Amino acid sequence: xxxxxxxxxxxxxxxxxxxxxxxxxxxxxxxxxxxxxxxxxxxxxxxxxxxxxxxxxxxxxxxxxxxxxxxxxxxxxxxxxxxxxxxxxxxxxxxxxxxxxxxxxxxxxxxxxxxxxxxxxxxxxxxxxxxxxxxxxxxxxxxxxxxxxxxxxxxxxxxxxxxxxxxxxxxxxxxxxxxxxxxxxxxxxxxx
Length: 192
Fold this sequence. Notes:
This protein is mainly alpha-helical. It has helices spanning about 1-35, 40-45, 45-70, 80-90, 110-120, 125-160, 165-190, and strands at about 100, 105.
């Protein structure tokens, strides 16, 4: 009777190891599904690109709301007023042709055009106002950047990583394989 009990106890221990291995492997697979970063092939899918375009549009809308709040301030500082003028100048339609130094019509360079208009607007500002203007631009851009990152993270965790197939099954399979290998090696050591 004692030998049957020992064999029975050994079988329970082996089954216990397999169950633990499958459980630990499955949990590890589930956790790694969310911990691993989004890969380039996942980012190249049509759904991901569509979502990123929507996120960019929403972030732009949020930036627009912040700009409108500054625009609607009743008593704007000179820096805030200059900021609004810069936004309006950037949003203005660009001319098809501009005159160069020789008086010849050429297509405008967009970056040069917007930089020139910004410099012209900033000429009248004191050093303190220029600093305030830089802070306004930086804070609006920083706010929009943080919102963009938040939206992207939420999409990646909530959608992209959530639909990753196979991580739990692969983890459980690897846990099962490790537990069986452990049981075989443990049994071989006892029998030797």
